[in-house]
Amino acid sequence: MSTTNTRPDKLAPALSQGPRPTNADTTHEEGIMTTHAPARPAARPIPSAFTGAGKLWLSTFRSHILNPWNMAFALAVPMFMYAMFGMTDIARTTQTGCGNVAGAMIVMMTTYGVILVGGSLGATLSVERTTGISRMYGLTPIQPWVILVVRLTALVALSAFITLITFSFGLATGAQMTPGAWVASAAVVIALSALGALIGLACGYTIKGENAYSASALVMVMGGFASGMFIPLEAMPPFISHIAPYTPLYGAVKAVYAVAGTNPMPTAAWINIGAWALIMAGIAWWGASHDTGR
Does residue 13 lie within any of the structural domains? Predict the structure, then answer.
């Protein structure tokens, strides 16, 4: 029986190389062992700023349209006020440029209703800020301005649904306008709902707690009276006529009168709508950016 002895000088090179690496590729070329480092995993793609925007839009829309109290308020207020001012013999028989006074009244009251619905965003945001939900948005890729746009468009879509119902109610109770005037009025009402949503967003992002909705409701109720939405400015004290062009809803009232063929749209009304929309959008954007810590 023979024993094979391994010479120390042959073991030295192998021992000097240390233990073989694991999880690595090795190749042998002319007695030389080469180690290749494992490939790095591919980098994850950067999430889009719109990630989750669709779900947030659907959640905002559902939270309002499936809330029976919210929808009852959104529909009952304009219908009840139209019944008070528009469902009279004088309103049905008095003609305007594109129909009768009842038609102009249903458009006016619907405008006020969708603006009030936009103000309800203040209550929704106050709950989110109190419970800490809004701060969780800071941990997601979605940007503050995307959140504003998503909420704004969801409320505009809801306003279109409300407009369809209230206009149908007006048609069934004696409101009259030309087909073109009905279409133009619907477009104006839906567009003006964005102003109410911006007011609600501005209040909701800058005022905490239940005070947010109270603040937005105060702006809309006082703005409605001061702008001549319920009572003509000519029938109110003179100082109201002087401050009316500076109130948030003055442009909305003049837009409804213009589309109903009652009075032309003055330049001051266009400036009023644009200025208040920019002011409220700026406040809302600042509040959203500050609230999420960005």
Answer: no
Nearest to 118 by CA among 81, 165, 70: 70
pLDDT at 65: 75
* Residue 199 contacts residue 220 (beta carbons within 8 Å): yes
Instruction: List strand residue ranges (DSSP E) for the chain, in order.
Output: 25-29, 32-36
Q: How many domains does the chain have?
A: 1
266: three-class secondary structure by DSSP: coil
**Residue 241 domain-assigned (yes or no):** yes
* CA 183 vs CA 98, 115, 122, 156, 188: distances in Å: 12, 19, 30, 16, 9
Query: pTM for the whole thing?
Result: 0.76
- pLDDT tens track for 41-100: 555 666 566 666 778 778 777 777 777 787 888 899 899 999 988 898 999 999 888 889
What is the distance between the alpha carbons of residues 70 and 29, in angstroms, rounded to a whole number? 78
> 87-96 pLDDT, tens per residue?
989 999 998 8
Owning domain of residue 106: 53-291
